[in-house]
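Question:
When you can, review this sequence-structure pair and walk me through the tokens.
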Amino acid sequence: MRIFDELCPRGPEWTVDWPRLRSAFAWLRRLEGVEQDPRHHAEGDVATHTRLAAEALASLPSWRALDPDHRARLFAAVLLHDVAKPYCTRTEADGSITAHGHSRRGELAARRILWELDAPLGFREQVAALVRHHQIPFWALERDDLEEIVLRVSITASNDDLATLATADILGRVCTDASAVLDNIALYREYCADLGVLDRPFPFANDHARYGYFATPGRDPRWAAYDDTAFTVTVMSGLPGVGKDYYVAGLDLPVISLDALRVSLGVRPTAPQGPVLAAARAQARSFLRTRTPFVWNATNVSRQVRQQVVSLAAGYGARVHVVSLEAPPGVVSARNSSRTSPVPAAAVERMIGRWETPDLTEAHAVSWLDTRL
């Protein structure tokens, strides 16, 4: 991506130009003065830590050996890894400083920042996934769900990149347990290498096996699940104005549209949506019982909301295809404004704040389409 390509350190000096980075990105300036617990971050505020982590990354021979695009992607991840700390940092009753939830919220913030910079989707989503999981290698071997996380990262980003980011994060700190945490990161690498997923996705036997693994706790990822799906349900996902209705009109399939149901039931978008969802589910079950392919057309911008639809369809033996549409912010805003009944700006803002791009851990198939043209 151009701006990160330009600002990314390069040889022979490999210098991090922090003043230029600070000038370019308002979100870096917002990290200034945000306190951290001195037990784990005696180096100072979040901005200082981010700068030191970026310098640590630039010093790693393994990072320097990557191709330029790969270096830029990891550099973006290290700059963004604590981007949500200004919104999550709290001083607890005992005087300690915490930032619970900053990785999860950081994923959402990183996605929005990179979307507004018009970053390529692959670049954006890999960075967002790294931000989401950047603390995992620190204490990975203590987690009961480590295998599931490692396999998820293998699909959405790279475990090798995640370990590199975690290494830079620790080297950018002044803390007493740095050596022990670096040992944990090394063990994380070994664990991933043993599973064959350090630098590549896990080779699920088929789409049905992959979907079943992430949908069913405790399932063996090596099980070659028999794909007995007999029909396909298409689940749309995208912000208002990305062109979902236009796309659906070309599919020649029955459509369950939450917007249309709201109109027919007389339910305002700002009112409780229980009746709309109940009607949509009733329609869906009617199609599912007869194994009739159909489209579920709604914004579905969060994984949790999508999963309710996906699991309903999969429970009836459907193959689920999630279609994710997107366009740049200016295009989305202009299209929404031109609608007969525009979605209120505040509602769109809330959707952007919880927007999670679908990935291949959610369904049998996912398509990502840019509708700017």
Observations:
- The longest strand covers residues 318-326.
- The chain has a mean pLDDT of 96.
